[in-house]
Amino acid sequence: MWENIKEFASTFFVTGDPLIYGADVSIALTMVAIVFVLTKYKKWGWLWREWLTTVDHKRIGIMYLIASLLMLFRGGVDALLMRVQLAFPNVEFLHSDHYNAIFTTHGTIMILFMAMPMMFGLFNMVVPLQLGARDVAYPFLNAVSFWLFMLGAMLFNLSFVIGGSPDAGWLSYPPLSQNDFSPGPGQNFWIWGIQISGIGSLATGINFIVTILKMRAPGMKLSNMPLFSWSVLSSSIMIIFAFPILTVTIALLFLDRFAGAHFFTMGGGGNPMMYLNLIWMWGHPEVYIVVVPAFGIFSEVVATFSKKTIFGYKSMVWALMSIAVASFFTWAHHFFTMGTSASVIIFFAISTMVIAIPTGVKIFNWLFTMFRGRISFKQPMLWTIAFIPCFVVGGATGVMLAVAPADYQYHNSYFLIAHFHQVLIGGVVFGYLAGIYYWWPKLFGFKLDEKLGRWGFWFWNIGFYVCFMPQYALGFMGMTRRYYTYGWDRGWADLNLISTVGAFLMGIGFIFQVWQIAYSIKHGERDTTGDPWNARTLEWSIPSPAPFYNFAVVPTVKGADDWWLTKQAKENGTYKEEPAHLEPIHMPKNSGIPFIMSLFFFLIGFGFTFHWVWMAVIGFIGVALCMWARSFQYDTDYYVPVEEVRSTEASLGRVY
Amino acid sequence: MSQHENHGDHHNHGSLKSYVIGFILSIVLTIIPLVMVMNNMLDKTTTVIWILVMAVLQFIVQLFFFMHVREGEKPRYNVQTLVLGLVIVFTIIAGSIWIMMFNKY
Ligand code: HEM
Ligand SMILES: [Cu+2]
Fold first, then answer.
1. Which residue ranges traverse the bilayer (chain B) (predicted)?
2. Residues of A at the B interface (Cβ-Cβ below 8 Å)?
3. Is A113 a domain residue?
4. pLDDT at position A1 over 80
5. Cα(A72)–Cα(A66) distance, rounded to whole angstroms?
6. In chain A, count of helices (H) and strands (E)?
């Protein structure tokens, strides 16, 4: 008996590496600490009522934000470990297997569990407020999405200490990801972590499309909807068409692994290249899914901090929406070297270059908006200005990669690594950071400290160029990606060392930002007006932090940049105060079902990961029961009485 | 499509009967290709064509019996989405076939 348990434990838990034992200990300690604090301060009920069961889009947004920052930390530590390993030739810090696992988890986490949730956090924090709505179209589904993401991410991260991490690259190409070469649970963790959170992403896409099309305040036509909401619409359209492809593709991969099917195997009629073809049909739209909302953020920030309406609103909308469609026609540029027919290569090379056009249009629009504006360089604007040169260079190297014959040289070299980090960090991360700095006061009621933020900003920016510029050169010098060590004779040593220094500078930048948040919670400048940046759109017309029902009175919109129009009218004295008429507010009730149902989804994933079918069956039954229970729940909403609205508003300094 | 529109306030989300019919049709359309493949009934090209035909029929059944494409008010977002969806489905299938043709040589 004891022998059996010991044997089970030694394969179940990851053993033999001091780094991982360290992680085990710290995870255990964190758990104990959390349980202790919650019990000591009697906070379990609070946690359940206020957070685990909430359907409030603002709270869900905050939870996404926290989760994504934690994942940025984990992905960042992975990155630093890799950079330490590559700092000098012949370093014996990580073994090759360990290095493989780390770049796999780094890539997967950064894209799917950092960028995606940070983006969903921003969707949730901003879109309903910007539209003048009281919540998203399906608040319950929104909670389901969040918890599916969260438990999918936890399942994936668990592979670090249980079972072993996946190590076949962030997209898990077969044949490497098949049973022959990747036995054991690591790949299954990858499949199920992504599968579960992917269902959540799909639901979020649906939710925000409906919210944007159906829940806008009266008078807000699509043609004067703020650009961030437009970008969310564009991104959500891509989500609903791209994520099903991902789901099916990795379901087929799972069938190959679990049931011995032959979709992507080397023999038996399968074809591994078909997997590449399918996964990039999701993968290419995916990179636009994450970057387009950043474009929306920049549009809001540039207009606000230049005190001008955005230049070329219509062309912006056109650019955002045309990307949503065009992004589905470029996927094969990720495997030009596969060796298909010349006409395929020509088609995809040209379509890739064409998609650069709408992006270029937007860059010019932002520049023209700034031109002759009264620019104030607050933190959101700093990140926006840093984004422009960074993204232009990243885009230009992207067009270089699209030149198919040349790509035979660049493909899978450090040139590629530098290119995509430049667009992902310079575009996506800088964009989301700009958005977080911009909307933070609306969510939390205080600004993030400028001084610490500037330190963080400069460390990130200088670190970025120091880290990634040398990698373009390394690519030309023949260094390929996923290389775990190299010899002195290659001549790559100096540039790699410089690159590692840059990575640590970015790490310091991140520490400054964590410090900034901690500091600002106590000392940050409080926002008493609700409009700390003198901004233009509806979310700034209500108090900060926004009350749970958002708008005491649903606004009637008169034009683009409605809040700016209102402020102008007040200044000119042409503003007619309409008698505010409070009415009871219809709100959704909290529910525990999303959380519980997601736990059952977790069981499904965990069960299949270890081939414990009984556990997966329990999971499926649980999910079905939760859906059943929800279908017969009729008491799902309530009214906030006028008195409560009035007193809440009064406590925020607004009298009705 | 629009002449089938059910005017008036009440939303028609289908009857039990239409759901049962849809359910049976979709199961039958799943079983046919399965049986054909498992028993090696036809040669390869014919099987592929049959599977594609069944897939298209399945798609139509889903749209009409479960997705209720005929319902919905103006503006007809469901039709717009459907058209975009068809374009993308076409791209996925035709694009894959085109790209993967190199296998033949
Ligand atoms: C914070 C600074 C970052 C550093 C220093 C960094 C560093 C690295 C390194 C060293 C690799 C592995 C290269 C190789 O051996 O092939 C890598 C791969 C990768 N990174 Fe980053 N990274 C950073 C941020 C990000 C971000 C923000 C994202 C996405 C939003 C990202 C996405 C990826 C992806 C997708 C891969 C490919 C993984 C694979 O080969 O399967 N990285 N990164
Ligand atoms: Cu691409």
1. 20-42, 48-69, 81-101
2. 213, 237, 241, 245, 271, 273-274, 277-278, 281, 325, 328-329, 331-332, 338-341, 344
3. yes
4. no
5. 10
6. 23, 2
Average pLDDT for A55-59 = 96
Q: Mark which residues 69-88 of B lie under 8 Å from A by CB.
A: 77, 84-85, 87-88
Is A600 inside any structural domain? no
The CATH number that applies at residue A391 is: 1.20.210.10
Atom of ligand 1 nearest to the CA of A424: 30
Domain count, chain B: 1
Alpha-carbon distance of A560 to A578, in angstroms, equals 20
pLDDT digits (tens, 9 = 90+) for A238-288: 999 999 999 999 999 999 999 999 999 988 888 999 999 999 999 999 999
Sequence letter at residue B105: Y
pTM: 0.93
Tell me whether residue B85 is in a domain. yes
The pLDDT value given to residue A269: 84
Tokens representing residue A214 in the block? 């159906």
Choose among A271, A328, A331: nearest Cβ to B103. A271
Instruction: Provide the residues around ligand 2 (an ion) whose CB is within 5 A.
Output: A 284
Instruction: Indicate whether residue A65 lines ligand 1 (CB < 6 A).
Output: no
Domain count, chain A: 1
Residue A340, min C-alpha distance to chain B (Å):
5
End-to-end Cα, chain B, rounded Å: 44
The reply to whether B1 falls in a domain is no
Those residues whose C-beta lies under 8 Å from the C-beta of residue A18, and which sit 6 or more positions away, are none
pLDDT at B6: 38
Helix (H) or strand (E) run with residue A594 in it: helix A593-609
Percent of chain A whose pLDDT exceeds 90: 82
CA A284 to ligand 2 centroid distance, Å: 4
Render pLDDT for A411-451 as a digit per residue (tens, 0 to 9): 999 999 999 999 999 999 999 999 999 999 999 999 999 99
Secondary structure of A148-217 in HEC code, one letter for each residue: HHHHHHHHHHHCCCECCCCCCCCCCCCCCCCCCCCCCCHHHHHHHHHHHHHHHHHHHHHHHHHHHHHCCC
Strands A585-588 and A637-640, how do they pair?
A: antiparallel
* C-alpha–C-alpha distance, residues A466 and B12, integer Å: 62
The alpha carbon torsion through A11, A12, A16, A17 (nearest 10 deg) reads: 150
Measured in Å, residue A75 CA sits from the centre of ligand 1 at 8
Domain region containing B94: 13-102
In a domain, A45, yes or no: no
B101 Cβ under 8 Å from any chain A Cβ: yes
Q: Which atom of ligand 1 is nearest to the CA of A429?
A: 27
Closest by CA position to A533, among listed A375, A369, A372: A375
Q: What number of CA atoms fall less than 13 Å from residue B71's CA on the CB side?
A: 13
- CB-CB neighbours of A346 under 10 Å: 11
Tell me which residue range forms the domain holding A287. Answer: 58-527
Q: Is the pLDDT of residue B76 over 80?
A: no
Residue of B nearest to A272 (CA): B100
Please give the Cα distance from A469 to A471 (Å, whole number).
5
B4, part of any domain? no
| Domain membership flag for residue A560 | no
> Which atom of ligand 1 is closest in space to residue A170's alpha carbon?
41
- At A574, is the pLDDT very low, low, confident or very high (cuts 50, 70, 90)? confident
Contacts of B96 in chain A (CB under 8 A): 274, 277-278, 281
Contacts of A273 in chain B (CB under 8 A): 100, 103
Whether B7 is in a domain gets the answer no
Q: How distant is the Cα of B80 from the closest Cα of chain A, in angstroms?
A: 12
User: B-chain residues within 8 Å CB-CB of A277?
Assistant: 96, 99-100
Question: Is residue A319 in contact with ligand 1, taking CB distance under 6 Å?
Answer: no
- Inter-chain contact B96–A278, Cβ cutoff 8 Å? yes
